[in-house]
Structure formats: C-alpha cells, structure tokens
Automatic annotation (TrEMBL):
Subcellular location as annotated: Nucleus
Listed name of the protein: S-adenosyl-L-methionine-dependent methyltransferase
One GO process term, biological-process aspect: tRNA wobble base cytosine methylation
Residue stretches of biased makeup (Low complexity): 404-419
Active site: 277
Length: 725
C-alpha cells in the first residue's frame, strides 16, 4: 500500500511520514447533535455547560485527556470530538457520567455517533427546506439524517416542508438500518427505497394540488458510493493485511454508473456531491474526470474553497498511475494486452484534458490534517441537460465494456456485489497482486445486492371523509387547514390500526401511475394508533409520540393540558399515577378530561420555581437543561394516567431534568392487557434487567414491528464503519 500511494504522489515527500504515522493511531470519538435546531441547541448547551467544564485536567494513572470540543468546521458547534481511553472512561467518575449521558441520548436519537469526515458531504450539498434531495447509497443513514434536518431547518409554524428526501439502498436488510437511523427525526418528507442506485427508475408523477406536474428530478443528489474503504484504516486495521489496489479497480465502473445516473436525475442548476472513503484515484479523480467528459460541458466542478473554511483539505489530483496486478505501471489503455483487459477501462487513466477539468477543486481529506479519517469529495453543478453516451468516447468505451463482460474477472463481479454497500474488498474478492482471476457464472441479483425483501404492503390513502379520519379529526379538533387527505395505512382491512401522515410531495410520488416501478420500503410518520382499552373512550385513537411535535401545531387546545414540572415528575416517577397523586391544584382539571389520549405541554419559561437550583445539575435552574417547550402524549384512563413515552425517552428526559424515573410500558389500564402490563411494570420497578414494552407485543401492527427499531445482523460494511465512530 505504501509503495502504491507514494507512486500516486497523493502528497509531498515531506508530508508523507506524518500522514503514514497518523494512519496507525486510533480515531478519536466523534458525535453529532441531531434534531430540529431548537432541540439540538438545547442538547449542545447541556454538553457545553453540564459536562465540559468538569472534564478539564482529568488525570487517571498519569494520563490526562483534553475535554470534548466542537469540530471547528461544523456549523453551530453541533459536531464534537474527544479522545479518551477506555481506562479513563472506566476510572474517572466525571467521564463515566458523561459516557452514560452519551449512551442515553444516543438511544433516543438526540446524539448520533458519526465519524467526522462522514459529516462533510451533506454540508456541501447546501440543502434548503424546499429542495428535493436523493441519497443514492444511503444506509446506514447518518448522512440522510443530516439531510432531513436541513429540509426541516425552518421550523415554521403550521407548515409541512415542501422538500423531499428519497433515501435509497440496494440491500433490503440495510434499508431497515436506514429506517432505524432516521426514525427519530419523524419526517413526513422521507421515502426509503430499495434499488440498485445505477438503475434508479424514472416516474411520471401525479399532479400536485395546484394541478402542476412536477418531474421526478432532484435539486440535490448525494452519491456516497460503494468503495474500497482504505481511508478507514484508523478504525479498520484488517485493511493493512487485506488491501490490494484491485479492489478500487473492480469498483470503478460501478461508481461511474451510479454517479452518471445521479447526474441524469439532477435538475439543471442543481448540485450533486460525489464522495468515497478511499484514497485511491481510481475511485476518485478518475470517476470525476470520466463523468465530466461524458457530460461534454453540461456539468462543472464547483469551487467550494470558501465553504467550511476551517476544514483543512488538499486539492484533487490531475495525474495518477494505473497498475497491473503484478505492480507494473501501464501508461495507457492500449498498452494492456488484449487478453488482460478484462479488469481495465479506458476511463481509469488520466484524460488528455485533465488540466482543463479543474480536478484541483476536488477535496482530499487526510487523517493528519485534523485528526480524522480520510475522505474524498467532489461537488458538481449541472449547467444544462445531460445526454449520454458522449459520442466522442462511446466507441472506445463500448469496446472496453464488451471485453470486461467477456472476461468476467473476479474484481468486476465482486465489486458489483457491493453496489449498495460500502464493503471493503478483501484479497479474495479483489483478485489483486499474487492472485489469479477466477471466472464465475454471472451473479444473480440476490448474490450481488443481497436477498430481495418481501413484497411490501400497499400504501393506501384515506379520504378526508373516511370514518376514522373524521373521528380523530373531530376529537382532537384538527385545524381546518390541515391536509386530511395525506393520511395513509399499510394494510387493507376494515379496522385501521396504524395511520401515517406524509407530505404532499410524498403523496404525489405514491399516487404516480408509475409507482410500481419504485420499490418503496418505508415512508410516513406514525401519527395515530388505535388503542385497545376496556375503559370507554370517545376516540380510541391515540397520538403516537413520533407525530406529536408535528400534530401539536394543528390540535385544538381543548385536548392540551398545560402542566408544571411537578406533574411531569409525577408521570416520570410513577408507572400509572392516579389523579389523587397529582398536586391538588390540577386534580380538578385532570378529572374533567374525557377518557382517551391528550397532550401534556410543559413550558420551562412558565415554571413557577424555575429559578430554584437544580438538585443534580450545578449552576442550572429547577428545570435543568430543558429550556424549550415539551409536548408528549398521555392516556387518561378512568382514574389514572400514563405517559406514552418509551423507556429510553423517559430516561433521557429525566436526565436532562435532573430527576430519577421509572421505566413504564405505554399501555392503558383496563382489561387483561392492562392487568398484565401493570404486573409487568411493577416487576420492572424491582428488577433492573427488565425490559418490558407491552405496546410492542400488543399494540403494534405488523408494519410497526420492532424489528425496524432493533434490527441487528446486517452485513458489516466500510460505509457503516466510516459513518459510525
């Protein structure tokens, strides 16, 4: 590897030793604070004010670590990193407490463990709330989550963003990891799809409410493609022994095809970002140069030197070498013997016009510059309609493609197998130095992209006049301007169990006459759930916590109860508090509430004793680090209440308030289910290992299966390694 990259001259001889030594040092821990801006700022201030001041100059066994600090180039101090050994985490009470906080907030999605360099591509996309964005190779989903946050950045009152996010992955199982990663962001603008990225289908969309037919094109596209992953050496030491340059060569053509399809689906004037976690010019500048030449002037590299100014980067290469499997440098494609061309494409060599393509505008991120992993990024702008193939190159390219298909070298076949997955290629897959190409039968789709998933349930929209829609609309007093025709269900039957809400843009896609061409795995925010209860209720639908933030804007105040901190603590510390357990000042109002679901709203600014010191958080008021308004669903039974938050959400809220809590399932009293659940909840208060969630077993329909939330066993990949710190 060292000899190969020295020959590529990816940096100066003077810089090389520093770079090489950094590759052998373990990466620091990095994380990103997620969610809407107001919520993210609250978590950020908790980190800055509650923990960082107590983590300076901590020494254990003579080891002193710097406290966590913001990444200097990430906006609004929402990206952080720290370098702490496991010994320090275990032996330092201060760091142990901080680690527990990180774990708790990660469980509920307020914090995302994400490698620093993985955060860069979405920032350079420059996403605005009205944009349609496609993430072509999205799993495991950290970058998609960033894009969702950008689409929802405005937080306008009673406005559902007009933007759209299509998050795609070629592997069905990994698409469920993507669903899990993006779930907490609760966006009605997200669609998760399962396609080979190079073959994303075109659609003829249904007209919008104004009668306009919007083409299925995107303002922004992210092509974070499958790659050899050798820039992840600092966290993946197996690459040191398994690396061959054949891995990059096997993926080159796949990467070109994915990027080309992304450009085709990009609007004129739009921006597409291409990225890899590889140092290899075969996967980087060679791909960029090929697309620019195919575009024939309809695409240009964007100079982003003024964006993220504190991010240290190196320019892209305009010259590089192509090696045979035995290490011989080939100056041009024609020098390759015809019987050995199966693993080569003409586009692997620097084009004759390389100096005119402005390849120096690409970004090369090296580990020693800011103590990160390695990365490559190129930002393009589409200036005119893109037509392929480019006739000036098509004949030569067709010859090479035909020879590749005839040869069926192991590199190309194994590389294609990871088209939707960022696997590193080991020596057996890459067919690199010292290995002989093995001719194989053509792979099936299941072998190349993972087993196809089961047939998805249909997406069925409910009319605004549907009986269920009318029932919960009247009960919760939904605003007249709320788009009641954007609710859908995932199963055909007389009794709707789970009702989802989607944006207008998502509805237009799902109503397309060509929707059968698009394999949609997941979309919509769970908004209403039919609640089984023996207690009589005017409306059996409760508001799901995933949809509470959105629905609060449109729900009548008649179903909203303003509460103080004491009531919130009562709900956190008792599984099923009776009305008599609440302060007398609120008991009459609680009694008057009809049976069923309601919304509790806590505004820290209105807390009567907010200036009193917090018993746990030094220097904070009584509400701890809860600074913005909280809303959460509560079910009122005949004589008791239940906070409809899961265990992790309860712990996170209690930690920020500086109080203790008990874990409780979200069930209602009454009937056999309620009796069993109460018994389980009582056991949970005395058994620390208990993990009872009655809603999971009793109240969720098949499409709400917890396998989406608790998915394990997806194949490990270079992309996942690059995205998660």
């Amino acid at each position: 590897m060292e000899q190969y990259y020295k020959a590529q001259k990816i940096m100066s001889d003077e810089e090389w030793p520093i770079f090489w030594e950094h590759l052998k040092v373990t990466l620091p821990t990095t994380f990103r604070i997620t969610g809407t801006r107001s919520h993210a700022v609250e978590i950020r201030d908790t980190v800055k004010n509650a923990f960082v001041p107590h983590l300076a100059n901590i020494s254990v066994d003579g080891v002193v670590a710097d406290p966590p600090r913001p990444l200097p180039w990430y906006p609004d101090e929402l990206g952080w990193h720290f370098d702490v050994s496991r010994t320090l985490l275990k032996k330092s009470p201060e760091y142990t407490k901080f680690h527990q906080f990180l774990v708790a907030e990660t469980e509920v999605g307020n914090i995302s463990r994400q490698e620093a360099v993985s955060m860069i591509p979405p920032l350079l996309l420059d996403v605005q709330p009205q944009h349609w964005v496609m993430d072509m190779c999205a799993a495991p989903g950290s970058k998609t989550a960033q894009i969702i946050e950008m689409v929802h950045a405005n937080e306008q009152y009673k406005v559902v963003p007009s933007g759209l996010i299509v998050a795609n992955d070629a592997d069905y199982r990994r698409s469920h990891m993507l669903i899990h990663q993006t779930k907490r962001l609760q966006s009605p603008c997200l669609i998760v799809t399962n396609h080979d990225a190079s073959l994303m289908p075109s659609l003829k969309l249904a007209p919008n409410k104004a009668g306009d037919i919007i083409p299925f094109e995107f303002d922004r596209v992210l092509a974070d493609v499958p790659c050899s992953g050798d820039a992840t050496l600092r966290k993946n030491p197996m690459i040191w022994t398994n690396w061959t340059h054949g891995g990059a060569m096997g993926l080159h053509h796949t990467q070109v095809n994915i990027l080309q399809r992304g450009v085709q689906m990009l609007k004129v004037g739009g921006r597409i970002v291409y990225s890899t976690c590889s140092f290899n010019p075969m996967e980087n500048e060679a791909v960029v140069a090929e697309i620019l030449n195919r575009a024939n002037g309809t695409l240009e590299l964007v100079d982003v030197s003024n964006e993220l100014p504190q991010l240290k980067r190196r320019p892209g290469l305009s010259d590089w070498k192509v090696f045979t499997k035995d290490g011989q440098i080939m100056e041009k494609f024609e020098d390759i013997p015809k019987d050995a061309r199966g693993r080569f494409y003409p586009s692997m060599w620097p084009p004759s016009n390389a100096d005119n393509l402005h390849l120096e505008r690409c970004l090369r991120i090296y580990p020693h510059l800011q103590n990160t992993g390695g990365f490559f990024v190129a930002v393009f702008k589409k200036t005119a309609p893109f037509v392929v193939p480019n006739s000036s190159r098509s004949v030569k390219e067709k010859v090479a493609v035909q020879e590749n298909e005839n040869a069926m070298a192991s590199e190309g076949e194994e590389a294609a197998a990871v088209a939707g997955d960022k696997h590193k290629l080991d020596s057996s897959a890459a067919g690199g130095q010292g290995s002989e190409p093995v001719k194989r039968a053509r792979m099936t789709r299941a072998e190349r992209f993972g087993a196809p998933g089961p047939k998805e349930e249909p997406f069925l929209f409910l009319d605004a006049e549907n009986g269920d829609v009318e029932l919960f609309s009247k009960f919760y007093g939904l605003d007249e301007d709320f788009p009641k025709d954007q609710f859908l269900v995932r199963s055909e039957g007389e009794k709707n169990k789970t009702i989802y809400f989607v944006s207008e843009a998502v509805k237009n896609i799902l109503k397309s006459e060509d929707i059968h061409r698009l394999k949609v795995v997941n979309t919509g925010v769970r908004t209403f759930i039919r609640q089984d209860s023996n207690s009589p209720a005017q409306c059996t639908f409760r508001i799901h916590n995933e949809g509470i933030a959105m629905m609060r804007q449109f729900v009548s105040d008649a179903r909203v109860m303003a509460v103080q901190l004491k009531e919130v603590i009562t709900l956190l510390q008792a599984p099923y508090p009776k009305i008599s357990e609440f302060p007398e000042s609120i008991q009459e109002r609680l009694t008057a509430l009809p049976t069923g679901c309601c919304i509790f709203e806590f505004d820290p600014e209105l807390e009567e004793d907010k200036d009193q010191p917090n018993p746990r958080w030094e220097g904070q008021g009584l509400t701890g680090f809860v600074k913005s308004k909280l809303v959460f669903p509560v079910w009122k039974a005949q004589v008791s209440f239940n906070m409809l938050l899961n265990k992790q959400e309860r712990r996170s809220l209690a930690m920020r308030l500086g109080v203790d809590c008990v874990d409780s399932p979200h069930v209602v009293e009454g009937g056999a289910k309620g009796t069993a659940a109460k018994a389980a909840a009582a056991a949970a208060t005395t058994t620390s290992d208990a993990d009872v969630d009655v809603e999971t077993s009793a109240d969720l329909s098949a499409d709400d299966s917890p396998m989406v939330d608790r998915y394990e066993g997806a194949p490990a990949s270079g992309k996942e390694e690059e995205e998660t710190a």
